[in-house]
Amino acid sequence: RQECQVLVVGGGTGGCAMAAKLSSRLGSDKVVVLEPEDKHYYQPMFTLIGGGMKRLDQSHRQMADVLPKKAKWVKEKALEFDPDNNTVSTSGGKTIKYDFLIIATGLQLNYEKIPGLVEALETPGSNVCSIYSPKYVDQVYECLRRTTKGNAVFTFPNCPIKCAGAPQKIAYISDHYFRKMGRRDNVNIIYNTSLPVIFGVKHYAEALMKLIKRRNITLNVQRNLVEVRHGDNIAVFEDLANPGVHYEETYSMLHVTPPMSAPDVVANCKKLVTPTGFVDVDQMTLQHNKYSNVFSIGDSASSPNSKTAAAAAAQSPVVFRNVMAAIEGKAPTDIYDGYSSCPIVTGYSSCILAEFDYNLTPVETFPLDQSKERYSMFFMKKELMPLLYWKLMMNGYWNGPALMRKIFSVLKFNKK
Ligand code: FAD
Ligand code: UQ1
Question: Mean pLDDT over residues 20-36, rounded?
Fold first, then answer.
């Protein structure tokens, strides 16, 4: 049995940022981080690894070096939450009692939900790949290199996912790759999405539709991958507008974005979650709707923002101030506006930087039209963001770009 003031479950993007902020304020050994993994991955780099622009070993650090020294790391998994008794039981047989709990367990990748997919991904020399897992991301560039003709098919599942732009980023990078290699005339690029539109924010969707047309990419909406027949190189899709109607697509290369959900241990704790399995928080304060000493940050929270590291960054000062208020016995007052951001990499030197809030209204940081493809935004995504992540965000110093945006607007660089 162990006790702590604040227990952070999950030492990924949101959990590590919260542990850094809170342990710095509260002092040594007040904060416990429960996290079973040895490595902390900077997942936004996976898209670039898929395109051969970065290596997998550049995307991770040792968890011990990333988690704050002032917090105590318990290298175990949360197995059961008991919010009525303020305890979490762990895979090592511990029961940790907390005053305040922050759930930052991210999303679970459910590759096994698509029949045939795991077998296809795990066949040596497979032409099926996925940027979403460190286990499969290296296969993406290998697939690109091997594909000389036929259909390169890209999928987007029928559920909320992290970085909803990533499934199309890898399609655009692939398009650019095949053009550079002089193979594009022989390779069809097919982007099959379960969504009814290419992107949820109209301002960027319009720019992306033009790009798709100009680059001759086939877009099929409301198509959900339901099976992979690896031996025949066939992917089976369901037409979500006509349930039960299936299409078979022959592929030379298949890039899969898997179904995702909150981790089972979280989703199974019915007291803590909404019917869809996400931690039931107030979308403004990120405090639990029933248990006032419980908060959630990042992908496992029920707040209806687009799930990204950028969103977790913008949530982090809100959760920090609201937890501090709760510790002082006060009601939470800080509010998260739903900010999220998605650098939509469109090739080997260009990027559209989408930024928006709960209303799906663009909230742009820079004094230029971010819906245009730009090298500056690509450089920021590829070279600056990793530094910002490791040096600032993981040490609790990055609260998202709101301050930067205000400075640009005070300097009258704003567009309006
Ligand atoms: P994570 O960072 O995933 O961390 C969750 C942690 O919880 C993990 O360390 C895990 O081991 C731990 N955990 C899980 N279950 C348990 C348990 N039972 N007990 C204890 N610990 C547990 N975001 C952007 O802002 N910009 C981008 O360009 C971008 N691109 C992306 C591209 C790809 C391919 C991917 C996969 C993601 C991308 N993201 C991007 C999204 C971003 O990485 C996530 O939104 C972010 O990491 C979410 O943070 P989190 O803390 O909620 O979860
Ligand atoms: C961001 O804050 C963030 O989290 C650290 C990302 O993930 C790596 C991003 O991709 C982006 C774009 C932001 C937002 C930052 C700026 C400067 C617009």
Answer: 97
